[in-house]
Specification:
The complex is a heterotrimer. By secondary structure, chain A is mainly α. The longest helix of chain A is centred in the middle third of the chain and has 31 residues. The chains are: A mainly alpha, B mainly alpha, C mainly alpha.
Chain lengths: 197, 103, 573
């Protein structure tokens, strides 16, 4: 009975471990998911008689703040991985904890923005702009929540693996990081498209 | 200090430098937004800056710069297909009999 | 993810298993059930078409007091027949079942790279199936806007459509997990010596299929989310302003476009066509090679064609939309790409045909189904050419001609290949062979009936009979003059007889599990790696580490002692 190879050491001819290839494939499909919504945005905007300027409806300073929060969480994420590579577990915990705090902060700000829109009677049904705004940011927020769950697991119960199989655990954090940076990357495009244009 | 850990320190420095660049670019794109450029120019500037930021995140945080070529090919394929979808939708909008969206 | 495999409870071993073989069997059983279910839906519809507005026998009581199939129920059955056959029947059987079971075996791997994701993939599929089945019982019945769910109709349809969308989200998730798993497995877990050009064609076909699922499905998921928003949150992604329904202007935000849905839908659904056909080609390649006792003709050309087919399938989608007011530039582009994409299919089919030349053919049941696939797929392919050219398509669009064309691809095409796969690989899964006589009855009966169903539809379509209509509408008047209306009865009877000919198959399948002839590990004397494992393969698949020494189909090598050289056999001895 064999175990599945290349979970920790890369395969020689591909130079990859399984999980690394897997997450990139998943991210490729995510590109197409958000890309599908982006292309819908372009199509609808092309056909619209008038399209509001994002800054006239959305709060640009808050959006800018949230962008910086998310970029910050990406930095702490990659630092937490670097800490593991340096075999400094306490630092890893600190940085990953910071990542989670920053992503929570992002969600809180997002929730505040949403409730502000609702209080002005702006709902998804209000206009094509609001429809695409809520759909894109809502789907993005779901991805943030998914990342929070994964990071929470790696910070808490999942971190036991550090004692038993540190190399594999470091890989896991790197994989989770790749996902997290992708979520950040999506926001980097969402922000100007929705808030500034 | 061993050479391995000093190498990691340079990594950390790189990450922080990238963070700085991203923050600055964010401020730049917002500032440009307040200039109220014509729509076409605004789109070009905003998307260029976003692409630059995206490239920074992908290259340094996601380590694409030192990743296997196969991953790059996968991403190029995906981006190519996405561009096909977007451009055909744009062409479909213009190359069409009658009005495509009634508002 | 390496797993420790000790003693396992029944639940862990058979229900929430992470063994790719158990998951493959779970997929297979569920998918066969859905194939049967989708077939039954169609048989009910055929009653209405053959004997309009007469009470349906046997199950009429399910349809209301009079037992007559009402138009709204007919619409539901039609939409769900398409959805179930494509997303719950054929793809799960060809990819979920055969792919799951045989890809790891054929590349000599102990399992898939991510066994737990594999299990999740099955259970998402199962959930999606449950949601689809449950949708029959919500007010207004199951989705009734066609399997394509075109808005605005789908947006204002009854609750079943919401269920359909939720079900599709589950199914898409399942496909994505599966696709990631397949690609990683094929790239990472090939055994030593199994280079790309030594891979069995089946593995290649699954690899290309997985890429199609991975990159084409997400835009439909995006579109599905938008349609859900339209239905639940009152947005207007797909609804134009001033939409009039039943003489009244609908109160919507407006500003949307039904065409947007069509583009996003077909961006998936055309690659999906190749998801349906590629694994079938893969199975046929395996069965042919084994039963002609010579290497496949043009293996490399077939592989390149399959890869090219995968690429091209992303840029032909709007040939489904020639009648949407598309301009000539775009239509010209899509007509050209559509003509180009027929070339690789023809190359593969030609390779199959030329492979037969000079072979010493064994006419076993799986071989009969594989041989049946070739002309049936050819017919389906050739009749597709007029549909790819706008001038002809404008006449034939949405007629029974289209139904006949794509059913020739997927019914006597793909489904025959799947039957070939069942008969071919049954000995590996159970250690027993299925009964040949019953298998031959199954084949010849199905072959005749399939043609009885779909051949007359070409004539009906050319006479202008519209698809999807409960009573044929005005198109029946043209058909009456053309004298093709009588064939409705022939088609329906063929369909019901086809059902009868599936009984020997089901009986054979169930009986052979315990009562079939016991055979050794390699009863067909085949060369690929799955036959190097014991039958049925144990957990972890192979008893000893393998190395591959040669291409996939080394049959009748001059000078060899036997007429087949297994891939893992070191040297002639």
């Amino acid at each position: 009975m064999e175990t599945i190879p290349y979970t920790v050491t890369p395969r020689e001819d591909t130079g990859l471990i399984n999980a690394k290839l897997g997450i990139w494939l998943f991210l490729a499909s995510e590109v197409m998911l958000f890309g599908g919504l982006f292309s819908a945005y372009i199509f609808l905007r092309l056909g619209a008689v008038s399209w509001p300027e994002g800054s006239s409806i959305l709060n640009v300073p808050i959006g800018t703040f949230n962008t910086l929060v998310l970029i910050g969480s990406s930095v702490t994420m990659v630092l937490s991985w670097a800490a593991l590579a340096e075999k400094r577990f306490d630092r890893f915990r600190l940085y990953l904890g910071l990542t989670m705090l920053l992503s929570l902060l992002f969600l809180v700000v997002k929730g505040f923005e949403y409730s502000e829109k609702f209080s002005h009677h702006l709902y998804p049904a209000s206009s094509s702009f609001m429809a695409i705004y809520f759909t894109l940011t809502g789907l993005h927020a779901l991805h943030i929540i998914g990342g929070l769950v994964v990071n929470g697991y790696l910070w808490g119960p999942g971190s036991k693996m550090w004692a038993s199989d540190p190399e594999r655990f470091t890989n896991r954090v790197e994989i989770a990081g790749l996902y997290w940076h992708f979520v950040d990357l999506v926001w980097i495009f969402l922000f100007p498209v929705l808030y500034l244009l | 200090m061993t050479s391995a850990s000093s190498e990691l320190d340079t990594h950390t420095r790189t990450y922080l430098a990238v963070f700085g660049a991203l923050a600055i670019l964010t401020v730049v794109t917002v500032t440009v937004g307040y200039l109220s450029l014509p729509v076409g120019a605004a789109i070009v500037v905003a998307l260029s800056i976003a692409s630059l930021k995206g490239a920074l995140v992908a290259s340094f945080f996601m380590h694409l710069i030192s990743e296997q070529k196969s991953i790059l090919w996968l991403l190029l394929l995906t981006l190519g297909l996405l561009l096909v979808l977007i451009f055909i939708l744009i062409i479909a909008f213009y190359d069409h009999a009658g009005t495509i969206i009634v508002t | 993810m390496a797993e420790v495999h000790g003693e396992q409870s029944f639940w862990r071993k058979y229900i929430f298993s992470i063994d790719h073989k158990i998951i493959g069997i779970q997929y297979g059983i569920t998918a066969l059930f859905f194939l049967l279910f989708g077939f039954i839906l169609m048989m009910i519809m055929r009653w209405q078409l053959a004997y309009p507005e007469q009470p349906v026998p046997i199950i009429g009581w399910l349809l209301g007091e009079e037992g007559i199939l009402l138009p709204e129920v007919y619409n539901s059955l039609g939409a769900m027949h398409g959805t179930i056959m494509v997303f719950l029947g054929i793809v799960p059987l060809s990819v979920g079942a055969f792919g799951n079971y045989f890809v790891p075996l054929q590349i000599g791997a102990p399992d898939m790279t991510f066994p737990k994701l594999n299990m999740a993939s099955y259970w998402f599929y199962f959930l999606g199936g449950i949601v689809m089945l449950a949708s029959f019982f919500v007010p207004g019945g199951a989705a009734n806007s066609g399997w394509t769910s075109y808005p605005p109709l789908a947006v204002i349809a009854t609750m079943g459509q919401t269920m359909w969308l939720v079900g599709m989200v589950f199914l898409i998730t399942s496909s994505l997990l599966g696709a990631v798993n397949f690609i990683t497995t094929i790239i990472q877990l090939r055994v030593k010596g199994l280079t790309w050009m030594r891979l069995p064609f089946f593995v290649w076909s699954q690899l290309v299929t997985a890429f199609l699922l991975l990159l084409a499905f997400p835009p439909l998921e995006a579109a599905g989310v938008m349609q859900l928003m339209d239905r639940l949150a009152g947005t207007s992604f797909f609804l134009p302003s001033g939409l009039v329904v039943s003489g009244q202007v609908l109160e919507v935000t407006g500003g949307g476009s039904p065409l947007l849905w069509q583009h996003l839908f077909w961006f998936l659904a055309h690659p999906e066509v190749y998801v349906l056909i590629l694994p079938a080609m893969g199975i046929v390649a395996e069965v042919l090679a084994t039963n002609i006792r010579k290497p496949l003709w043009g293996y490399r050309a077939m592989v390149y064609s399959a890869v090219f087919l995968g690429f091209m399938s992303f840029i032909v989608w709007a040939h489904h939309m020639f009648l949407t007011g598309m301009g000539t530039t775009l239509s010209g582009f899509f007509q050209t790409t559509t003509m180009i994409i027929s070339i690789p299919s023809v190359i593969i089919l030609t390779a199959f045909l030329l492979s037969l030349w000079g072979g010493s053919i064994r006419f076993t049941t799986p071989m009969l189904f594989a041989l049946g696939f070739i002309p049936m797929f050819g017919l389906g392919g050739l009749t597709g050419l007029p549909l790819g050219l706008a001038p002809a398509d404008i006449h034939l669009h949405d007629t029974y001609y289209v139904i006949a064309h794509f059913h020739y691809m997927v019914a006597p095409g793909t489904i025959f290949a799947l039957f070939a796969g069942v008969y071919h690989w049954f000995p590996k899964i159970t250690g027993r062979r299925m009964n040949e006589t019953l298998g031959k009855i199954h084949f010849w009966g199905s072959f005749v009936c399939m043609n009885g169903i779909f051949m007359p539809m070409f004539a009906q379509g050319m006479a202008g009979i519209s698809r999807r209509l409960w009573d044929g509408g005005i198109s029946y008047q043209f058909a009456q003059d053309a004298g093709v209306l009588w064939s409705n009865e022939l088609i329906s009877i063929s369909a019901w007889v086809l059902f009868l000919f599936q009984i020997p198959f089901v009986y054979n399948l169930i009986r052979s599990i315990k009562g079939g002839e016991i055979v050794d590990d390699n009863p067909w004397e085949a060369t690929t790696l799955e036959w190097a494992a014991p039958s049925p393969p144990p957990h972890g698949n192979f008893t000893e580490p393998l190395t591959v020494y040669r291409p996939a189909y080394e049959y009748s090598v001059p000078g060899a002692v036997k007429d087949f050289l297994p891939q893992h056999q070191p040297e002639e001895g």
